Amino acid sequence: MTTAATRPPAGGPPGPAREPEAAPSFVERLLKPARPLRLTPGQAGALAAGIGGFTLFVGIVLGPSVGLLFLAALVGSAVAVVALVVPWVALGLMVMLEFANVSGVFEERSPVSIYTAMLALGIMSALVALARPQYRARIRTRWWLPVALYVVYMVSQVPSTLQSAAPEASANSLDNMIKDGVFLAVMLLLMQLANRPWMVGAAIVLAIAPIAGLTAINQYVYDNGTTFGGFSNIASTAGASIAAARHAGPLPDSNFWGRFLVLGLPFALALVHRAGQAGHRLAQVLWIGAAMLVGLGLYLTQSRGTFLAAAVAVLVWIIASGPTVRRYALYLTPAALVGLLIPGVGDRLLTITETLSTPAYAADASIIERGNVLEAAISVFRENPLLGTGPGSFGSVITEYAALAGTGPTGTITATHNLYLEIASESGLVGLAGWFVFYGGVVALGVSAVLRLAGGRRDGRHGVPSRALAAAGVAALIGWGASSIFLHQSYSRTLLVICAFVGWIYSTSRSEASLRRPAAADATTAAAVGLRFGMVATALTTALACVVAAALYAVMERPTYVATAELTMQATADTYPGYALDVRRRVLFLPTFAAVIEGGLAQSATTVTGDPNRGTMTVRSVAADPAEAVALRDSAVLQADGIVEGKGLGSAYDVIPIAIDEVTEQRPLSNTTLRVIALATLFQIGLVVAGCSWFRNHGRRGARFT
């Protein structure tokens, strides 16, 4: 009898019994990534119908406004829950709300601060994400650099705060800086955790482009008859050579809204470039439309500083994005020149020259008043060069220092309208150095990212940042800095969003493994060589242009000597003194008397200009010899009262001199000389650029990247 062999179990010999796994804790279950919620079309429709039906019921029972509030609260709660566990949602909301200034629009209508609520949501979202390993792994090296640079700037403000002329204002300014530092740190963390750089650029554009569209609808459809709930404000309908009302979007000032648009314009161009490189024609058309809306919004600000800053931002983006973009931009140069012929652009920019070519009373009042404010700020800096008068103190000391500087009227302006003079006057050289460490350091991080991404993919596939996107961050920063020549510090959180973005791009470019390939490293090296070559070429071109302009100016313009004197009108006993002396409010009074005096002089080399702002008339005699200039001036001063008497105006006023100035040497720049210098300088720049291009092309020796 045989027995069958028994076969061992398929799984091998039994091992030791496994201990049962411990059940996950509540915190682990909470932080565990949730599976995406998938609903069938029927389930989604049923859910939407249920929500809509209940909202309709609430609206019928309690009123339409309560129903809308219920729906808004329901949607807002759902979005907040999603943002709490998905960092890129919280990041996108914070970016869009900042660039749309939602907090400012609803500041008086909302029981709570929208900004504070969103910042709290962002902090909680970052903390929840940091508790999960898959999100912590996204944090790259050197992500904290923008915060460190900002801390340097904050520390530089402390000495001037301690000896401030306005302690309360300085304390509030420092407190706001600390809050902004927290905001910057939160934005940096969320960008690291979200890891979606293109989403940040898209959020900026999608926030400002629709609002720019609303300003256009308000201008051309509603004839500026609405504000669209506070998102399409009209700052002013007055201004020299304006072609439309000055739209301010969701802000009260069109100049600051223009700075928002300048920040977003390079990102719109980068998104257009990405869609074109990837071959997504529909997306490219949509982003082109968004970029055109941003451009239309820029136009409707009618802000001269905004126009110039936007041009600087676009130029920087074109140069930094690489040779392909530069070639395309070269073809579009004629379109840019034609744009200067649009009413409200070129003629609006030409009004800046009124400060040199027309009397102060006839020039654009905003330019004159800002110039007077800048003189006051310079006076503050001269008196307090090291530490200034304290952060936020300029509005308190402007009256005192304007009087010391002898400036004209400043109107209702209490800010410098120049960021750099604001910092210099309020914080001195110490604060100015701290600012340039922060701002210049972030720009340097952006330039480093542009160079390293020169070897990356052009279209930023799979969400990876490209050189064009990094260039958008650098261009936005430089455009903001250019616009700040005409504006003071305000709405600083939009700048901090860009600083956080540039810091994120920098940390990504330093840690991205694909950029360490030999080809990518070669591209970075070639781009760095190209940057150095461009900087040297730019410096050389600028130096030669200055030499050419100075040489032509010295040859074509001969020195002249100018003698001036100040006159005023003194009321006689035959008139009512109070009314007679009120010549500043009657704008045409002094210019009229000045024209009468000048017309009665037999000499053509002497002019008389009336300035209602100061209540004086200026006699100005020009001659080739100092003695001759003095003789002409003195003769005009002696004749002035007799000319007024001869015209039958002497019964009310006597003309008296109040100041005799020293003779000065001048070389006036005539229009003919200016045109010759401009043409010669452009020709010289063209020759230098052509020579540098030839040298660069022949020196590459087969290099594929620049």
How many helices in DSSP terms? Answer: 27
Low-pLDDT runs of 5+ residues are: 1-8, 25-34, 701-706
Count of discrete structural domains: 3
Helix content: 55-70%
Query: What is the makeup of the main sheet?
Result: 5 strands, antiparallel
- Can you count the beta strands? 7
What structural class is derived from the secondary structure elements? alpha+beta
Write a structural description.
This protein folds into three domains: 136-516, no CATH class; 517-554 and 671-706; 558-666, EIF_2_alpha (Alpha-Beta Plaits). With 706 residues, the protein is an alpha+beta fold. The chain contains 27 helices and seven strands. It is globular and about 95 Å long. 64% of the residues lie in helices and 6% in strands. Helix 11 (254-278) packs antiparallel against helix 21 (467-483), helix 18 (365-383) packs across helix 19 and helix 18 (365-383) packs across helix 20. Strands 3, 4, 5, 6 and 7 form a five-stranded antiparallel β-sheet that branches. Strands 1-2 form a two-stranded antiparallel sheet.
